[in-house]
Structure formats: C-alpha cells, structure tokens
Specification:
- The structure is a homodimer.
- In chain A, 40% of the residues are buried.
- Chain A is an all-alpha fold.
- In chain A, helix 4 packs across helix 6 and helix 5 (88-99) runs antiparallel to helix 7.
- Helices cover 72% and strands 0% of the residues of chain A.
- The longest helix of chain A has 29 residues, at 124-152.
- The first copy, chain A, has nine helices and no strands.
- Chains A and B meet through helix 6, helix 7, helix 8 and helix 9 of A and helix 6, helix 7, helix 8 and helix 9 of B.
- Chain A binds a DNA duplex through helix 3.
Chain lengths: 211, 211
DNA sequence: GCAGCAATTGAACAGGTGTTCAATAGTTGC
DNA sequence: GCAACTATTGAACACCTGTTCAATTGCTGC
C-alpha cells in the first residue's frame, strides 16, 4: 500500500543511535514538546512507526537521550578536572569550570534538563537514570574533596555534606546562568564555588557543628 | 443554542482569581500538561471559553499563576526570617529554613516551577515575571547580609556575589530536595547554608580575592 | 535464486490541544 | 419593564499527540 522511495536499512544499534541523536537535537531546539515522535522521526529522516519499532515507548526514547546527555556532561566536567593538574584544589576548580563552561550553560542545555525534570515525576525509567547519574557525579566530587583533605591536612569535615553543598551550589549557579546569563559571569561562578571550598579548608564545615 | 443550567455570574476580578487558583491547583497536580484550558476550566466549574474571555491567552493565565506563586513563596521565606528574631544571622537562618520548609519542597512545588521554567524560554511575559521575582528575592538576601556585616563587624566582602552564592545554594538544595527527598534532611540543608554564611563571616569571601 | 526474517513504511485511530464566535442569560441603569 | 451591557456557554475548527498494524521492502543464509 505504501511506496517508500529509498529505504536505508540499518543495524538496530546504528538506527537507535541516530534516533537518540535526533531526539537530543529536538530537545535542544524546543524542549519536550519539540521531541514528539513525529518531529524526531522527521529530523532523523525516517518514518513515524520506526521509533516504536526500536523503542518500546516515547518515554524510553527520552530516557535513552537522558542517559547519553548525562554521561556527556559528566565526561566534560571530569576531563576538565583532569586537565587542571594534579593538585586536588585545582582539579576541583577545573571540575566546576567544566560544568559551567560554554556549551552546558546555554538555553539549549536548560531546555533539555527541564524536559528530563518534567518527565522525572511521571516516569520511573527517567527517575532511575537521574538517580544513577547524580550518584556518580557526587561520588567524584566527594573523591576530590577527600584528596583535598588528605593533601592539605585540613581539619576533618563532613565529607558527604560538603559534597552535597558544592553540588547544590553548582546546580543553583548553573540554573541561574541558564535562566538569566547576565546575573553573573562564569569567572564569578567559579570564584563562588572556590569560596565554598576555601571555607571547607579553613574548617568552616567541621563534623561537630556548633553554630 | 446552548442551555446553561446555573450560570453564576461573577465580578471579573473574582472570576480571574478563581481561575488563577484553579490553574495553580492543576499545575500542582500534574505540571503544565495538566493545566490546559479544558482541565483548568473543568476544575473551576466553568466553560472552556470563559478563560479566553478573562485572559488574552493561555500563556497569560500561566503567567498570572506564576506571579501569585512567586509572591507567596517570598512571603513565606520573609515571614520566617522575621519570626526568627532580630539577629541578622538568625534571620538569615530563618529565611533559609522558610524557603526549604514543608510545603515548598514537595513534588507539587517542583511541578509548578518546572512548568514556569518550561515557558520561560517561549514567553516574554513569563520571563518578565521571573526576573522581577528573582530581583526582589536576592535584594532581601543582600539586605540581610548587609546587616550581618554591620552588626558583626566582619571584614568587607563582595555583597553581590555573596547574595548570589547563597541564593544559588538555596536553589540547588531546593531542587535536589524536590527531585530526591532522601539525599539529605532539611536540617542538613539549613546547616549547609549556615556554613556558607559562617564562611562569609570568617572572611572567606573578601572583595580582593586571591586564590 | 529463493525463502524467511526483520527493518521500514505510513495510513488509521482515539484522543488531546488553544482559539474563535454566535447564542444565551444574568445584571444594571433608567 | 425594558434596553444595553457583558459574563458565560459550548460547539466548531484546525492541528497536534502516541500507538498500532498490515503492507512493503532490503538483506542473509542456503
């Protein structure tokens, strides 16, 4: 009944990959509502039905895109940390700068993450991806903080809370940068995170907290 | 052509208010997609067309809800600050605790804010509401920090950046609490913000930054 | 060369969306 | 009591959504 012109038959893996890429491109351009099955399939140069052939759900497609994006962001931050030197303090600074660098704090990135957050409450699959990526992210920060503590010989501090705090500040700064890029500069953001780390080094954040 | 049974004629102001309330309820229950004109009108016990009679747009309806929610959240934080005593340090703590208190860090609140963020890129109207509310929020934090500086006689620090940093940390903690309430407790969150303030008091965050 | 398998198609379906607009009906002023 | 005004209605419109499925095709093993 149909008359398909040029059918490019692909390996399932290859096709999945290209569909995920198209999904990411759509999400960047206009968030969740720009990543409908029709728009994604159009972008991938493929028919509507193919998506449901390779992914059980629209939800599963978005989740796959989520996993890829989260991994990429983590890689950028981690590479920046490694490239910043051996000093754990410098590495932390590099990590922060990487996370807030160009390409991650633009409108496009925000649209993607908002899309994921939107689905987070509705989809157990998305929630799972979020938890996994978050745990990995914080574990790295904790690792760097631990090395900082050892090498600088600072007083003991609550490692878990310090990591959570830095992670939260990073997220908050990132969010505000995306929502309104004029509020502060990248350098100022890095400086603020650095102040937090400096505070830790000076023993602000000790285990036995007495306010 | 229609046969409306009981038509409750209302003042435009009253009707607008009840439509905004219904919108907020819908947003809480299921985010943006649960706040369609049909669902909102159903919740308000009113016909579809009435929304477009009182609001020029669906967008305008959401923006009105945004303004109301933002004001309410600010009032909660500010009241908590006032109730915490006269000491600026205590007031800051109160402010933070208020912002992270029950009723603001649940799934419902997150759904609302995600909805606003989603529209932030598309709608100039929403963007306007966001900027206004953000400015007000940070101005209050800055004011409290200024009093802290004066009364405690701490070294001069960059007021603007300190306020932005605290605001960002607050936002980041709030976001993570909403996404996963098990990561840390409210008390721990308050403690983290307090550590930031403590760091400021100890001169971590001076104007002339030398890392 | 041909059979079997699976990648691919697109029409069809049931349902949703925001906006428009003629028709209806409460309310107010005279 | 009646006219003018306007809050309110809901059907209609054009368009979008995710999923399904028979039909079509390209590839692989034999």
């Amino acid at each position: 009944m149909q008359t398909p012109r040029t059918q490019q038959r692909q390996t399932p893996d290859t096709r999945r990959k290209s569909l995920i890429d198209a999904t990411i491109a759509c999400l960047k351009s206009g968030g969740l509502e720009a990543a409908s099955v029709r728009k994604v399939s159009a972008r991938a140069g493929v028919s509507v039905g193919l998506i449901n052939h390779h992914f059980s759900n629209h939800e599963a497609l978005i989740a796959a895109a989520y996993a890829e994006i989260a991994e990429a962001l983590f890689a950028v931050s981690w590479d920046a940390a490694q490239a910043a030197g051996n000093n754990p303090r410098d590495q932390l600074r590099g990590f922060v700068r990487g996370a807030l660098s160009l390409g991650t704090t633009d409108t496009e990135s925000l649209k993607i993450w908002i899309a994921f957050w939107t689905m987070n409450e509705r989809s157990a699959l998305i929630k799972q991806v979020h938890d996994e990526s978050n745990r990995e992210h914080r574990k790295k920060i904790e690792h760097l903080l631990q090395r900082l503590q050892q090498e600088r010989g600072v007083k003991a501090f609550d490692m878990r809370l310090a990591a959570i705090g830095l992670s939260a500040m990073l997220d908050g700064l990132w969010l505000e940068m995306c929502l309104d890029p004029h509020t502060f500069s990248v350098d100022e953001a890095v400086q603020m995170c650095d102040s937090w780390i400096e505070g830790i080094c000076r023993g602000t954040f000790q285990v036995t907290s007495d306010a």
